[in-house]
Amino acid sequence: MSDKDRPTGAPWTRREVLGAGAGAVSLAVIGCAAKLPPAREVKAEAGEVTIRLADAPELAQAGGAVALKVDGVKKPILLLRGEGDAYRAILLKCTHVGCTVGYDEAQRALVCPCHGSRFDEAGAPTKGPAKEPLTVYPVTVEGEALRFRPA
Question: How does DSSP classify residue 75?
Fold first, then answer.
């Protein structure tokens, strides 16, 4: 019975109460999961993305991350600084069912809010149900710029 069909003041059925409770718990769990910073929109020029380090101060330290929405790519890409001058561009599409993965900066882990899969900063699964690694694009450092090709 929908709300519009329910007489005013009529009690909820057990099924409706359980469904509402499950929905509230799901929202709480998703709300506590790793989040993604707002994605910056960028274009791929001739299939290549270029990010100037001066434009991404978040990448000044290991573990720093910038979420990118690349024109023509359906899911965001996380540009992540590892140790030293190692950078990775990780497609945030879970290999389990395709949900958008978030980044837990405190734990330095990628977390899927749908079924709890976890990945390390290299994109390798550390907790299932996902068994395959995330897609990682090689990043080259050229002077003060980072470049990668999302395929």
Answer: S
